[in-house]
Design a protein that fits this description.
heterodimer, A: 334 residues, alpha/beta, Rossmann fold, 2 domains, 6-stranded mixed β-sheet, 5-stranded parallel β-sheet, 17% strand, B: 342 residues, mainly alpha, ABC transporter involved in vitamin B12 uptake, BtuC, 14 helices, 0% strand, globular
């Protein structure tokens, strides 16, 4: 969970990770059954003598593989598998659950599954795979000793990410031309068209991606949130915060005194904490929350923060955003 | 020079010293209201404080609804932590005693996760009562366990019981966290002590406990002086050692419990300030107590101000600032100071 890290590692705030890596290279594949290879998110080529079949995957990555019919032997998630949006509606019978909390993976159980591949996103800002980042349980990191780790980079677009996992699935022997996959892509293209059309009617609309927490407000930095970059690409003016945390550049941290530093017309609310009542609750709890005019006007919508991996999920989420954009007033924040 | 003249001279200097500390505290409190992560001009702050600006400007909200309660809470919690640390170091005659090792923090955490999982409650305003209950129960448990056996709650047994209860409560918390991710996420709010995000309701909730505890603590200076001479001497002087200990522990439980419930575990204040006070006042707890009570909020508020201005537009939790600044100070005390037998 990318929001919790700064809280867990608060003491290490000054620890500055090296800036963004420009190592995002498109994934390449090899479809042969024999020696297998895949270009990892960090640009390294990972090879194996034969195509891996016993896969352990992080939740969203597992969902992506399963959408192409590849069932992992084990899954670890950042939250309960019952609430993880990626795993919603998926049949998990026969899959070992190896973790349901960020930073904690049962590596012993993972070892007993004798995996030959670990699939987890590559996070360029942290230069690490999901579940193996700075701040997780040291024991969890031993997961990478069990098998090679590969993942697509959480780079500049969810489209790249989804296509990357399609390539990975294909390299692992999946058929990627099934009708439901094509249908999901079509649905996604329609959703993007509707999104673009809605944005085009409101040229002045600005949006800000936020995640309020008890002791501060986090403002997302689109540079490290591929779905926000996609929104920007499709015309929505998602505000770039002025001063992201140098040690953890996913966010700019605002104290509650500074909650109204930005005045967007629409608030994209971290989907992991969004509920229908959240805006009213925070307005009651935090004296400055309603100083943000969009919050006062209840112009808030759930933002699928850092979890999307498939065209199907992205389409569903885009439709929700399109509705909110149509309803939004582009002059609230000005 | 006779002892009594030394004492008289000391009182002559220490009395005005208290007045100076009061003035410093007032100044620091003023700074805490005028400085913060948001840049508000002094005139705006003053107009907000005196209600001259209407009450719907953001400057008014930040000054009156956020900084004033935060500052008052900082004063109350700071004083409580310093005094609790002083009483604890006195009663256990352990210069390294602080509320953390008496199970206060672990008890508070355990009860918060229990409240979330068993009772399904949510919200900071509700948690503080469970945290408070947990802190008090843990402290009393430590005392009860240490009291078993012939000599009663001796310093060594207190330290051991504190470690045991802390470990027990800690494993309870971890056990629940493993099975309930929700509880873990909610608990993170407590992991680092902070004055941020706490407003008037929390202040008014804990204020009565803080005030009663602080007043009561001023009355136990004499008894702690007796205990400092050693148990047998104290008993020989006619002091009821068991009763003193029980009273002291109640005060610690109330003060540290309320402080931890409101702000989470804040380190170092309760550990370092008593040493500072002892360094200034000498061994007389009747002076150490009020000095701790004034020095601690000064330290806490200053650390909080630093945390609020160094990381704009965000802020650092006061627990982090104290950890960073407190560690070297503490090492200094251990290394160069007389880490006097409390």
């Amino acid at each position: 969970m990318r929001i919790w890290r700064p809280i867990v590692a608060a003491a290490a705030l000054s620890l500055t990770l090296a800036a963004c890596a420009s190592t995002d290279t498109p994934a390449t594949t090899s479809t042969s059954a024999g020696p297998w290879q895949f270009t990892n998110g960090n640009g390294e080529l990972v090879k194996a003598d034969k195509t891996p079949t016993r896969i352990i995957a992080h939740a969203g990555e597992a969902a992506a593989l399963m959408s192409f019919g590849i069932k992992p032997v084990g899954v670890y998630a950042d939250e309960s598998v019952k609430t993880d949006p990626n795993l919603k509606g998926l049949d998990l019978t026969g899959i070992e659950i190896l973790g349901e909390e960020w930073g904690k993976i049962d590596v012993e159980k993972a070892a007993s599954l004798r995996p030959d591949l670990i699939v987890a996103d590559w996070w360029p800002a942290e230069k690490a795979h999901s579940g193996l980042e700075e701040g997780v349980d040291e024991k969890s990191k031993k997961l990478k000793e069990l098998a090679p780790v590969v993942g697509v980079s959480q780079g500049k677009s969810i489209v790249d990410l989804a296509e990357g996992y399609e390539d990975l699935a294909q390299s692992l022997g999946a058929k990627v031309d099934a009708p439901d996959i094509a249908a999901a892509k079509k649905k996604f293209e329609d959703a993007v068209a509707a999104f673009k059309a809605a944005v085009a009617t409101k040229p002045n609309l600005t949006a800000l991606a936020m995640s309020p927490a008890d002791d501060k407000v986090y403002v997302a930095n689109p540079e490290y949130a591929p779905e926000l970059l996609d929104f920007q690409k499709w015309g929505l003016k998602v505000v770039n915060p002025a001063k992201p945390d140098p040690g953890f550049p996913y966010w700019e941290n605002l104290s509650w005194e500074n909650a109204d530093k930005y005045q967007p017309d629409l608030i994209l609310w971290d989907g992991r904490s969004y509920t229908d009542k959240a805006n009213a609750e925070w307005g009651k709890k935090q004296p400055t929350w309603f100083a943000i005019k969009a919050a006062k006007a209840n112009a808030v919508v759930s933002w699928p923060a850092y979890w999307l991996h498939t065209f199907g999920h992205f389409a569903t989420e885009l439709d929700k955003l399109t509705v909110a954009i149509k309803a939004a007033d582009e002059n609230v924040g000005s | 020079m006779s002892t009594s003249t030394v004492r008289a001279r000391r009182a002559l200097a220490l009395g005005p010293g208290l007045a100076v500390l009061c003035a410093i505290l007032a100044l620091v409190a003023f700074l805490s209201i005028t400085l913060g992560s948001r840049d508000i001009g002094l005139s705006d702050v003053l107009r907000a404080l005196f209600g001259l600006d209407g009450d719907n400007s953001i400057e008014h909200t930040v000054t009156v609804d956020m900084r004033v309660p935060r500052t008052l809470l900082g004063i109350g919690v700071g004083a409580a932590l310093g005094v609790a640390g002083t009483v604890l170091q006195g009663v256990t005659r352990n210069p390294l005693a602080d509320t953390g090792i008496m199970g206060v923090n672990s008890g508070a955490a355990a009860f918060v996760v229990l409240a979330i999982t068993v009772l399904g409650v949510r919200g900071v305003g509700v948690y503080i009562w469970f945290a408070f209950a947990g802190a008090i129960i843990a402290t009393l448990l430590v005392y009860a366990i240490a009291s078993l056996g012939r000599e009663g709650a001796t310093p060594v047994k207190l330290a051991l019981a504190g470690a045991a209860v802390t470990a027990g409560m800690g494993s309870l918390t971890t056990g629940i966290e493993m099975t309930n991710v929700d509880a873990l996420n909610e608990l993170r709010f407590w992991q680092v002590g902070s004055l941020a995000g706490r407003y008037a309701p929390i202040l008014s909730g804990v204020a009565p406990f803080l005030i009663i505890g602080l007043i009561a603590s001023l009355a136990c200076g004499r008894a702690l002086n007796g205990l400092a001479l050693g148990e047998d001497t104290a008993r020989g002087l006619g002091q009821r050692v068991g009763l003193t200990r029980a009273a002291a522990f109640t005060i610690v439980a109330v003060l540290a419990g309320a402080a931890t419930a409101a702000c989470g575990p804040i380190v170092f204040v309760g550990l370092i300030v008593p040493h500072l006070a002892r360094f200034i006042c000498g061994p007389d707890y009747r002076w150490i107590m009020p000095y701790s009570m004034l020095l601690s909020p000064i330290v806490l508020l200053l650390a909080d101000i630093v945390g609020r201005v160094v990381a704009r537009p965000g802020e650092l939790q006061v627990g982090v600032v104290l950890g960073v600044l407190g560690a070297p100070v503490f090492i200094g005390i251990v290394r160069y100071g007389r880490l006097s037998e409390a």
